[in-house]
Amino acid sequence: MDDVVADWKTAAREYLKKPTWDWDQILPDTEWRRLKDNQRMYRHLPLKPGAHELVDWVTKYCRRTDSGLFFLSALPHNNDVPWAVQDKVWWAHDHFPHIPVFLGPYSNEKWMRCEPGDILIDDRTSNCEEWIRAGGQAHIYKNWDDCKIWLEETLK
Questions:
Q1: Angle at 106 between CA 104 and CA 110, to 5 degrees
Q2: What is the separation of C-alpha 3 from the centre of its chain, rounded to a whole number of angstroms?
Q3: Which of 7, 15, 27, 84 has its CB 3.0 to 4.6 Å from that of 48, i.e. a possible disulfide?
């Protein structure tokens, strides 16, 4: 969900007052601790541009092919944001009530949910690489336009 349909990075930049933060750099521990002080952050994340288009496209595909559809999200590092699970579920229910939410539980464990042929759309390269090694297909999400091209080419 985070940084595919929910705009976590924008919310984090605004909360930390770092509008130009380069996410390729490691966020210092002091900044992570500040983010974790915002215990309800996941409840109020803005939608990513293209989120509705992505979900509509995938929903239609899943209905047409009788495939399952769910959000696979992860607990925050160290599981130190107690509201995260409930708030992610509520967020998804508010924006996309037809899609259930499953937890990784941690990001580096998402691959454990993969069955051969399953598709993952994720913002983390490592998650996609692990998913592919587990027998699935994966797309590293940057934006809806690129993802749509990948979906159309991959799923024909």
A1: 45
A2: 5
A3: 7
At 119, list the tokens: 């598709």
The domain total for the chain is: 1
Query: Which residues lie below 8 Å from residue 47, measured CB to CB, with a gap of 6+?
Result: 5, 6, 7, 95
Domain that includes residue 63, residue range: 8-19+29-155
Whether residue 2 is contained in a domain is answered as: no
Dihedral class, residue 66 (left if φ above 0, else alpha if ψ from -120 to 50, else beta): left
CA of residue 7 relative to chain centroid, distance? 9
Give the global pTM.
0.91
Percent with pLDDT over 90 in the chain: 74
The per-residue pLDDT for range 48-94, each reduced to its tens digit, is 999 999 999 999 999 999 999 999 999 987 788 899 999 999 999 99
